[in-house]
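Reproducibility note. Readers wishing to regenerate the assembly model reported in the main text can use the exact inputs given here. Chain order matters: entities are listed in the order in which they were concatenated for prediction.
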Amino acid sequence: MLTHSTLVYALTQYYFLHQKVTHGEESFLITLDVNGQNLTANVSDGNTPLLWVLRDLLGLTGTKYGCGIEVCGACTVLIDGQPEHSCVFDVSSAVGKKIVTIEGLSAPGTQNHPVQQAWIKNQVPQCGYCQPGMIMSCVGAINAGQHGSEILSEVQNLCVCGTYQRVRDAITTSNL
Amino acid sequence: MAIDTRNTFVQKNEKKHQIGRRGFLATALGGLSVAFVMPDAGRMFGLRADALTPTQLANSYVHIGTDGSITLMFGGSEMGQGIKTGLAQILAEELMVDWNQVTVQQALVDPTVTYITGGSSAVSGRYTSLRTAGAAAREMLIQAAMGVAGDSNRANYTAVSAIVTYAGPNPVSPKSWSYGALSVAAAGLTAPANPPLTDPANFRLIGKPIQRVDIPSKVDGSAKFGIDTWFPDMVFAAIKHCPTIGGVLAATPTKPSSAIAVVPCKASDNRGIVAAGSVNAVAVVATNTWLAKNLANSLSAKWTLPASTASVDSTQLSAQAASLLATGAALIAEPAVPAGFTPSSYAPVIEPLVNSALGTPTVDATYTVPHLAHATMEVLNCSVRLTYDSAKTNVIKCEIWTPTQAANWVAATAAALINAAQTTPLAASNTIVNTTYLGGGLGRKIEQDYVSQAIQVALVVKRPVKLTWTREEDMGHDNYRPMAAVRVQAALNGSAITAWSLRNVSAAILGQRGWMAPGSVDGQAVEGAVSLPYNLGTSLTEWVPLPAGIPIGFWRSVGSSINTFAVECTIDELAQKANLDPFVFRYNLISDSRRLAVLQAADNMSLWRKSLPAGHFWGVAMAEWNGTIVCEVAEVSQPTTTSLRVYRVACAVDCGQVINPNQAEAQMQGGIVHGLNAAMWGQITFTAGKANQRNFNNYRMIRMGEMPKITVQLVSSNNPPSGLGEPAVPPIAPALANAYSRLKGSRVRTLPFFPGATMGDL
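Running the prediction on these inputs yields the following C-alpha cells for the assembly.
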C-alpha cells in the first residue's frame, strides 16, 4: 500500500541519493534503520545529532527540537528500545541500531499504540509540540517493564502547556 | 458583530483583490458561500473586539458545497486552545448539523484584513459572529427550499443534520433536500442580517466536551507545526543576533566554506533600543539546521554596540523603577480623569486627597516582578519559498509557512520586503501565508522578527529555506514580559478598606511600538489594577512609565500577571490585619454577584484547607480577565532551597457560556502551570545588554513529579463566552505567595520565589 509516509520516504531517498553535493566539504552516505526501514542520508559530519538527520535530511519531523541540551525531552526517540535524546545522540553512533520515532510507533493503517490511545481518550495534548517526546519516553519506560506510576517517575519531559495532570490520568487510568 | 449581508460581496471583493484560491472556493466549487467578519484580538490595538465595524473586510467564510461539504475558512491560529474544534461546535450548532460534518480550514490571508489570535479571544471573540453566520447560511438554505416548495411560511420547514424538510400543505415531492442540493439556489439569495439564533436551552453541541479534532495528529507525529515544514530541496538557516541588545553588525562576516550563504538581517520593528532596519542579526544557511547553528555560533561577527548598553541592566532598571515609584510623575488610570484635565495634570489634584484619606496606611508595600521569556516549546521559525519570473529578477509568488498569531501581518511583512527589492510589485494574491499549528504562542508569535529574517534570507539564497532560532536565541532575544514595581498603600478601619492607592511603574508595550499617544495611560500596564471588585473607599490607580531599552511584548495575561500579584497579596495582608479569613474578608468587600458566586465555589471546593496536615498552608487569590472571573486556592508545604511543594490547586471559573468544558478545564490547568512556573522560578535578568538565561537549564519549569492536583469547577453563567487562554494565570502567583507567607511567617513581595533555580539533564 502506498501511504503518505512511504511516499515521503521514497522521495527523500531518491533526492538524497541523487543530489549533487554542491556545498560543504567532505560528506558521506550513512544508512540508518528507522522505523524498520533502511534510510540513507548524506551527512557532512558523523557528530551530527540524530535529531537533525531525522528532521532535516530524512524529513521525519515528528521528533521535535526543544532545547538541544537534553533538558526538555522533546527529541526523545527509542534506540534499541531505550529512550534517548536525539538532540545529543551522534548519528554515527545510531548506525546499526533500531531507531523508532513517533512516526513508527504504530505502523500506518494499524491501531495506535496503547499510549497513543490513552492520550486521545484523555485529551492530553494542548499545543501538542512536546507530546511525541512525552509519548516516546512513556513507551520507553513501558518497554523497560514499568507500570502505572512507575512510568511517571521515569518521565521528566517538559511541557510548557502544563498537560502533566492529563498525562498522569492517561497513564494511571489506562492499565499501562 | 459584523456579517456581510450580501454573499455577492465575496465575489466583488475577490475581483478587487484577485484572491486566487478563495475565489476558486467561492465560485468554481459552487454552492453557498457566506462571508463575514470574525472579530480578532482588537485589544491589541486598544480596541475591544466588539468595536470593530461592519465595514471591515470579511476575514472568514462559511461554505456549503454542492456535494454537501461544510467548510469554515478562518484566519485564526491553533496553538493548543482547541480553536478548530470549538469553532466547528459553534458553527454546527447553528447550521443544525453534526460537529464532525464541519471542516475548519485556514483561510488564505489578505494582508488588508486582520486575523490576530490573542487576548483569549480565539473562540470567545468569534462566538456571536460565527453563530450569526451559521444561522444566516441555514436560513438561506431554508429560503432556497421555500422556492422549491412554493411556500414561504418558515414554520413549515425544519433543518436537521444538513437536510431541510418541508411539512407544509403543498404537494411537492420529495419533501426534503440536502444542503448540497440547495446550496446553488441559496447562493443567489440575500443573507439575512439578523437570522434567528438557536435558544441556548436547546444547544446540542455548545457546552459539550467534544474531543478535539487535532489531537489524533498530535499523538502520531503527523501534525505539522511551522518547524516541521520541509521540502526535499530546502536549505536551513540559523540566526545569530548581536548578543548585546541594540548592537548593529559592523561588517558582514566571511562565509565559512561549508555554508551556503551568510545573510545580514535587518530588524523588522522598533523595540526599545533595537531600531527597525538596523542590521541586528546575521543568518547562516547550510544543508541542515545543526550545521547552520554551529557555523552561526562560530562566525567572527563584529558588532557596534550602542552607548546605552550599560543601562540595559536589570539592577539599574530596578533602581530606576524604585526611584520612579517614589518620585516619578504619575499618570492617573483610575478614577476617570475629569474634563479639562489630562492623566498627568490630574495627578497633583487627586493625590493629596487620597493621601489624606490614607493617613498612616495599614499596609504600604512594594511588589516587584522581573522580565519573563515566553519560552514556547516550539522555537521561532519560518519557512519561505519564493517563485521568480523567467529572468529570475522578480518574485512572482511568495509562500510562507509559519507558526503565527497574526497571519495578515506576516503577509504585510513579506510584501514590504519583497516590494522594496523589486520594481514590479508582487500581487497581494500571490503572497500565500500558511498558518501552521503553533507549538505554543503565548503572545510571542504575534511578532514579525523571525518572519522578516526568513524572507530576507530567501531573497538572497533564492531557494526554499527554513529559518530556525536556537533555544538560546529564542530566550535571549524575546519580546519579554516587562519587569515592574508596584506600590500599594491601603488603610483599614475594622474590616473595611477606607483608602487605597496603587502605583505601577513599568514600560509600556504599546508605547514601545508607537501604538499609543504619549501622555496617555497604557491600559495593559494597569490591567488587573483597575475596575477592582472590592469596595476600596477613596482609591487611586497610577502608572509611571519606565523608559526601557529592552524589547517587551505580550505575555499570557499581560499586565494582569503583574498587578494581580500586588493587589491580591495586599488584600490577603489586609485580611490578616483585620483578623479575618481571606474568604470572609472578600465576601465583605465584594458586591458583584458573579464574583461572589466564583468565590463561593472556590470556598466550597477547598474545604480541605480546614484540615491540612502539619506544615501545610493554603492561600487564595482571584482575578477578572476580560470578563472571565477566576478564583484559585493553593496548598503548599515546606520548601526546599529551590522549590515549593504545591499539592493542590482548586480553581473556580466563570467564563460565561462554556463552549467545550473539556478544553476549558485544560486551559485552566495550563494557565495555572504557566503562572506557577513564573512565580516560583521565572526571570530573565540582563547584564550590560545581555540576557543571562538562555535555555531551560536556567529557566526552570515544573515537571511531572511536581505537578499539583488541579480541580476545576466551571461556574455556570449565561453571559457570553469571555475567554479562557489567559485568566487562569494571574491568580496563581498571589495564591502561592499568600500560602507561602503563612508558611514563612513573612510576606514574599518579589517574584520569583526562587531566583537562580536551575534544571538538570533528564
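We highlight two features of this model. The radius of gyration of chain A is 17 Å. Residues 18-24 of chain A have pLDDT under 50 and may be disordered.
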